[in-house]
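hey m, so remember when u said the tokens were messed up on ur end? i reran from scratch. heres the input so u can diff it against urs
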Amino acid sequence: MLCCRLSACALALGLALASANESRRKNPSELAKLAQQQKSDAAGSSPKVYEDEDFGLRIPAGWRISRADRPIASLWVDHPGVVQFPTPGHGLLLTKNGYTLDLNNMAGQTSPVPGGRFCEVFRIPWLIDGADVWACGGYLLEKPQEGSEGLLFFNMVFEGLDSETRKTCDIPKDLVFERRWFAGYFSTAKGMWLFDSDGADCAEKAYTLTSGAKAPANLPDVNDPVLKKIIGEAIDIVGSIHYKRCPPARIAVDSLSKERRNTSAALESRPCLETR
């Protein structure tokens, strides 16, 4: 009896598919729609190549380009951890699984602090006052990613929070919060958030990776497998960049310990502006 039912279902399905195929053969518009859908699906799942005035790179399957030429309020809804967005022709905004890879080749700063300030590159969406964002950023632990070559990748992590950190960063006392990943950034050996480019009249660059978290509870665990995969793919994307002009400045690796950005806090001259 079960075999008969399966045979009947298979026969019905075969007739339906045959009918649909016949209909498409008779209706060119249906064929055109199908071809367009297949083209769209292929575009979303196949590697792509992006080029602008500054660079070219390979975009792996699954990553999508997000338009940066729209109102800042709209951008912050989709990319809550980003402060500066690339201008057309000078960078790229990529997204996957709620994560944003911001490749900004014309980043800028208003402070005299070498490499800029934390709040000139990152937002903490649940903190409104810029001074709070700056203060909270000081509690993030930076962990260089193993295996990254060329530009180095640094993870920024909330770990071992005490009462002062929770108060400054507005993290609830009852929230279980062991090791959460906040964001990451690419830099030269100097470890600056904003890093120099080689060439005359070349602007600073800011390459960041952020999540879509809008509250402390939404931040991913540092051992989350999806996060690890995203970081690996982001490193591969940056590693595939071919610069047409203004490549990252070459810095000796042994200067890393001498010029780390966390020593620049003493140069802070004024609080960051409000982030929203």
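this time it looks ok to me. Helices lie at 2-26, 28-45, 72-78, 130-137, 163-168, 225-239. if urs says something different then somethings off w ur setup not the seq
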